[in-house]
Design a protein that fits this description.
single chain, about 280 residues, four-stranded mixed beta sheet, 12 helices, about 10% strand
């Protein structure tokens, strides 16, 4: 059965669902959730709740008409994460609320394809959208100190287009990064790091990139030579290790230091440096 046919069958039943905009307070949200305890919903994803709550607190939450869906027994079948986030954020917001849906409606919710961050910026005309999002994510996590905390520190999808608009020059480095793919395949990392370096010292950033790309004119103790050799020898190097080495090599080049061996002292708990 297609969704449109299913919705028609719902309308044809005795009690049609009702739809209206409701102002929901944290107290109302808690009551709705408590009344829904007999419905076995999806397992709550706490990281998603935290992300939604942060958006509500910071004013980034947008009402796009996505409804809270409640079945004929008064139980939430869609919207538990938003209601939990409302409680966590201690916010009062308006939502479209559909009440009186058959419980089996839950099987027809969220079965479409969600928009990714790359979809969002591609809709704005960006090329190389997938790499651009990877670069934006690297930049966001590096500047927020969350490169080594997994998905918890990622750029929120809803903020992707706005963050891209704040850093339009990253597109230039996304394009440039494609030529160093033979050196290191994580071109999003390369583009994000080079954009950040260029924001500090554009002239040295151009030199750093050219040396990384060509490998020409360097002695073996040059930090970019060491970085390049390390990346080529280990094409599957993890993101955090590569990030540590990129920044170390940048700082060494900026200070005129030479190095016989560039490495990450992981066993000693070495963390990524601040780019100077």
């Amino acid at each position: 059965m297609y969704a449109i046919d299913y919705l028609k069958s719902v309308r044809d039943r005795e009690a049609a669902p009702t739809t209206r905009v409701e102002t929901i307070t944290p107290e109302t949200a808690m009551r709705i959730l408590e009344e829904s305890s007999s419905f076995v919903n999806r397992k709550v994803k706490r990281t998603h709740v935290a992300a939604l709550a942060e958006a509500m607190r910071s004013g980034h939450w947008k009402n796009v008409g996505d409804p809270i869906r409640i079945d004929s027994d008064g139980r939430v079948i869609d919207g538990q994460h938003r209601l939990l986030a409302l409680v966590e954020a201690n916010s009062t917001l308006e939502f479209v609320v559909i009440r009186g849906l058959p419980t089996e409606s839950a099987h027809y919710i969220d079965i479409g394809i969600p928009r990714s961050g790359s979809d969002m910026i591609a809709m704005g005309g960006a090329t190389n959208a997938f790499i651009t999002v990877a670069a934006l994510n690297w930049l966001y996590r590096y500047r927020n100190g969350t490169l080594n905390v997994g998905g918890r520190g990622r750029l929120p999808r809803y903020a992707t287009a706005a963050y891209h608009a704040e850093h339009p020059e990253i597109d230039r480095w996304v394009t440039a990064s494609q030529t160093v793919r033979r050196v290191y395949g994580r071109t999003g990392l390369v583009a994000g790091a080079m954009y950040h370096f260029a924001s500090i010292d554009p002239v040295t950033a151009e030199q750093f990139y050219d040396l990384l790309n060509t490998g020409l004119g360097m002695e073996s103790d040059h930090p970019v030579y060491q970085l390049r050799e390390k990346l080529i020898a280990n094409p599957k190097m993890g993101e955090y290790e590569a990030s540590v080495l990129f920044v170390k090599a940048w700082n060494m080049m900026r200070s005129g230091r030479r190095v016989e061996r560039l490495f990450w002292a992981k066993a000693k708990g070495e963390e990524i440096q601040e780019a100077l």
